[in-house]
Each structure stands twice: as C-alpha cells, then as structure tokens.
Amino acid sequence: MATIKMKKLSVIGMNDEKQALIKELMDLGIVEVANPEGKLQSEEWTNLVVKDGDEATLAEFDKKISYADSALSLLDRYDGSKKPMFPARRVVTEAEYCEILGKEKEFEEEVHRLNEYGSAIADAYSKANSAEVLKLSLEPWRAYKLPIELTETECLSIRIGLMPLSTDVQEVENELEAAGLPSVVQCVNKDKEQMYVSVWYFRDDEDAALEIIKRYGFTLAPIAELEGTAEENISRAEQAIADANSERESLELKVKEMEKSRADVECYHDIMVIGRDKAFVRSRLLTTEETFTFDGWTPKFASSKVEKLLEKYTCWYELTEPDEDDDVPVRLQNKKFFAPIEFITEMYSLPNWKEIDPTSIFAIFYIIFFGIMFGDVGYGIILCVMSVYALKKNKLYEGGPYKLLKVLFYSGISSIFWGVMFGSFFGDLIPVVAKTFFGKTIVINPLWLDPAKSPMIFLVFSCGLGVIHLFVGMGIKAYGEIRDGKFLDACKDVFAWYLIVAGIILMLFGARVSSGAPGIGKIMAIVGLVAAIVLPFITNKGITKGLGIWDIYSGLTGNLSDILSYSRLLGLGLASTSIAQVFNFLASMGGKSVVGVVMFLVIGILGHTLNFGINALGAFVHSCRLQYVEFFGRFYEGEGKAFEPLSRDTKYINVIKEAK
Question: Which intervals of the chain form a coiled coil (predicted)?
C-alpha cells in the first residue's frame, strides 16, 4: 500500500576513481543518478564545474546498438524456428559475463559480417528488381529486330515510341505522305493500354515529321540508352536476374549458417547497451579538473549497501531525507500476490512520492469486476490455461508480459468463480449438447442467480458493489487528509458524503431490511447535508466558503453518475453468457446427424473463440476504466516519476551473482 521510501544521495569523488565507482554502482543496481540541469542553471555552480561525457560517445554506442539490431533482424528473417511470444532473458553468471566481455571484438566481427551479408542481399534484390523492370519494359519490343541504339543512318531517322491504342498508323503514314514527308509507320506490338510503334523518315524532315506524329500522341520509348536488340537485352536481363538470385541465395545460406552466432550478437547488443548507459550516466556527472560530483536517489532500505560501497573510495557522500519540493522517484512495493497488478497502475500513472500506492487496494476489485463481466467457467478455464502455458513456455519471471499474464490468470480464476455463481459453462453448452445429441434434459442451476432471468437483482448488486468501491476510494482520500492534519477537510469531502449516500440508500431501500431503517437514513442524510454546507465555512478561504450548496448539487449528480457506471458489470456479464447461448443455439440447428455434428463443432468453435476474444478484451478494458475513472478520480493525483537506477538494463542476458 506504500511506495518505497527514498533517500537523497550526494557524492563528491576523485576523477581517477570515477570509472570504477560507476561500474560498481551499476552492478549494485540501486542508485539513480539525477539530472544535473537544475544545478547548471545556477551561476555559482557553472563557475565551478562542467558536465562530464559527450554526445559523440553516446551516438557511437547507439550506432553500434543499431548495427546489432540490424544483424538480429537479419537472423530472424531467415530463422524458420518458432519464436516465443514473450522471450525471456538468458541468465548468465558474473564469471560468464566476464568471459563474454573478453569476446567483444569477436562478436563485433560477427555483427559486421552479418550486416555486410544484409547489405549484399539488399543489393542483390535491387539488381534483380531493376533487371525485372527492364525486362518487363522491353517485352513489348521483343519483335523489334533492329538494335535499340540505332536511331539514325546517313539519310534516315529511326524513332520507336508509344501511341494511344485508338491510333490508326496507316492514317498517320498517309498524313506524313500528304505533307511531302516520305515515311514508314509500323505497329510493333500493342496491349490493353497502348501501341508500340516504329517511325522512319528522312533526317532532313525531323522537325516537321515529329510535329505531325506528336499530334497523334506519339512519345519516345524510355529505352534509348540500351545497346543491341530488344531480344538480346531481354536475354541479358534474364541472366542478370538469375545471377542476382543466385548471389542472394548464396548469401542467405551464409546467414542461415550464422544462426549459431545469435547468442554472440545478443551479447554484443547488451554489452553496447551497458556501455551506452555508462556514457549516459557520465553526462549526468559534474566535474572539475580532479573531482566529480553527482546527486541521486536510493531506496532507504538499501542505503547501508550504498554507504558500504562508497566507503571503499576516496569520496565524500551524504544521505538525507527528501525535501518537500524534491521530485522524488517512485518505485512500487507490494506483496507477491499483488505485485503483478502494478501493471494496471503503471498503465495509468505512478503515484507521486507523497501518495499512497493503491495497487493492493484496488487489486481485489479489479479481479472481481473482470470475473463478473467475463463470468463463465469454460472461458475462465481457458484463460487460466493460456496464461500458465504462456508463462511456462516463455519462462517468464519478470517484466510487463509476466505481470500481464499473472493478472489474466487471477482474472481467469475469478471468471470461473462467477461462472459457477451464474451457472454458465460456455453459456448453456452442456444442456444444449445433452438435448441435441442424446435427447436428455440436463438443468444446471446457478449457485446464485442467472443474470438473464434476474437482471434487476444483478443491476442492484452491481451498483451496490460500485458504492463499496467508491467508498473505499473516498476512504483513501480521507486517510491522506487526516495524515496531513486536515481532519475537517476529510469530514467535508468524505465523511459527510458517506452519511449522505448511505442515508439516501437506506431511505430508498432500507424498509426491506427494517421498518426503522428509512428513518435512520433520513437522519444520516440530513446530518451529512448540514456538514457539507457548514464545514466549507470553516475549511475554505475567501469566496469559496459559500460553495457548500453547489458542492451538494455537483456531488449528488456526480455520485449518481459514478454509481450508474457500474451497470456495465451487468451489461458485459449479460453479453458474455447471452452471446455464448446464441452461438450454442445456432450450432445445434443441424440436429443429431453427421452434418449436425460438423456444423456444431465449426459454429461452436468459431463462435466461442470470437466471444471469448471480444469479451475478454471488454472485461479487461472496462475493469481498468472503473479503476481509472471512478476509483482513482476520488483521490489519485499520479504523475509520479519512475525510479530508474543505474543498472545493467539489458534485453537478452540477465547477469546474476550466482546461477539460478
């Protein structure tokens, strides 16, 4: 329910120990080095220090990382093996990592070789494509037997070009003859769009002849720079295509043979990432000729480890509590069961360092809401099995994919529970199968209620659950205000509305429980309304003292709207089971026959797959919405900055102290 407490760290050390200290801090992985821009805005500091590191070094590391990514992409392109959906990092020990570092040059050569192959393959594709384009452009001229470069003789001009398909070449030739321009206009070929022609006329008639044939839409063919006949050029183009494809296939074979180098390339990638991160940290250090300094953050529980490390060096350091105006980084800390739900919090925004982490509080609500909206035993089992399979198959134990799959597993368990409560197993699959194929009548009664038969009870339940959810959110707000010494604000913003909302509920529905409940509810509502009007005169300042009545109006309408938002539990819960029942009905229409069995299997599998996908997505999204809008809207500020310690933030290998 809380974020990890942080301590501010300030260090001044000697330049000759800088590299060793950065390496050990990275190995330790619990210190974030803060951005020094704030200090550099002070003239006092800028007169004493300069920023360490340089952009050129960072750019060089980024370039090498990009080369490694290109090499891995090339390997992926020609690797036919099935890749895991969520690949896990390969675990290596410190000793193994030291051996890897010693092979950096060897790995770099492999990356360079792969990129050379990639460039050569791209060139081969380019050559083949260019030759293919040339071949296609020459194909209509295959019947033209003169060399393409022959455009004139001692007396004649020879032009080849294009004309519209509707052109009558004899008419063109006749007009040239009528103008006193002896010529030959010949159709070499034609297709669906245009006609390919050759035109011969005397060189002295060049301008006059071109003027006439251009009126008929004549344009020169864009192949004048070639030598030899069209047939000869087509043959050369085909040979160029064959040579380029042969070269490409040879290169692709070499790339496939280098698949064994994938682990080396991945190691090189991560070595460069670590180097870039070290260079990036240096850009956050401030230096003089002989010393360096930086500020940072470390978790309070780990401060003794940091002190022990720093005491090994010739440096001054100080660990202090953060000031009120500090931008303290945030890291969530929850018990093992709740930790995966941090994924939902992080999707919205981390709490700021002064706030309560709501993860462990809303986690149960999230799982319950998902289960109600997805409520089906069959779908829940599939969701659980898929989640566990993905976790085991991909060997996930950290990161966003791990957290997401754990959340889906918990949600699947909840869906199974609510499926039992609603009596839904792939809708009414079991009764339909029994009736259609075995002539038996099986009735599966819900343990609690059937949402389709008792929608009003389900709606009241959904809204009641919403009231509890909202009250918990308001309670967190009250806790924060009381902690900050604002008890009257908590009474005005939270406790008064507890009385108002609970009182109205008792006035409307309390008679079903006790005859005296409506009267008690009336008293509670009146006390709450009076408190909501009077307390602003005590807690607020200036003109806002008289806003109590307006707060009542906006609070009543806002609370009513928020409570009704939980009717989506009814809507999606009904949709999941009802659509499943519709698909079961459609699948059973073939009756008890071979065709009917095939029809049942095809429609049933496709229908339930579609229903599973759509409603799983809907349950996930709307469960998040109820947290982000209704629940977080009661107390949450967010906008926390994530704690990003200096560490080996690798993608492919995970360096550990001891092998697991």
Answer: 227-261
User: Which pLDDT belongs to residue 40?
Assistant: 83
pLDDT value at position 537?
86
DSSP string, 434-471: HHHHH--------SS--TTT-HHHHHHHHHHHHHHHHH
Say what angle helices 230-257 and 104-138 make with each other, to 10 degrees. Answer: 160
CATH number of 150-224: 3.30.70.2750
Mean pLDDT of the region 275-292: 92
Q: Which residues contact 90 (CB under 8 A, 6 or more apart)?
A: 263, 266, 652, 653, 654
Cα–Cα distances (Å) from 605 to 379, 380, 450, in that order, read 12, 16, 24
In the chain, domain spans: 150-224, 339-451+567-634
pLDDT bin (cut points 50, 70, 90) of residue 1 is: low
pTM of the full structure: 0.83
Instruction: Retrieve residue 506's tokens.
Output: 């008792």
Report pLDDT digits (tens) over 90-128. Answer: 889 888 999 999 999 999 999 999 999 999 999 999 999
Average pLDDT over residues 272-284: 92
C-alpha closest to that of 497 among 478, 517, 519: 478
Measured distance CA(524)–CA(530) in Å, rounded:
10
φ, ψ dihedrals at 185, nearest 5°: -115, 120
Decide if 506 contacts 517 (C-beta within 8 A): yes
Measuring CA to CA, which residue among 425, 427, 424 is closest to residue 581? 427
Nearest to 405, CA basis, from 430, 419, 387, 382: 387
- Average pLDDT over the chain reads 93
Q: Six-digit token pair at 123?
A: 């060139």
> Is the pLDDT assigned to residue 550 strictly greater than 90?
no
Other beta carbons within 10 angstroms of residue 606's beta carbon come to 12
**How confident is the model at residue 255, as a pLDDT?**
96
What's residue 658's pLDDT?
A: 60
156, β-bridge pairs: 202
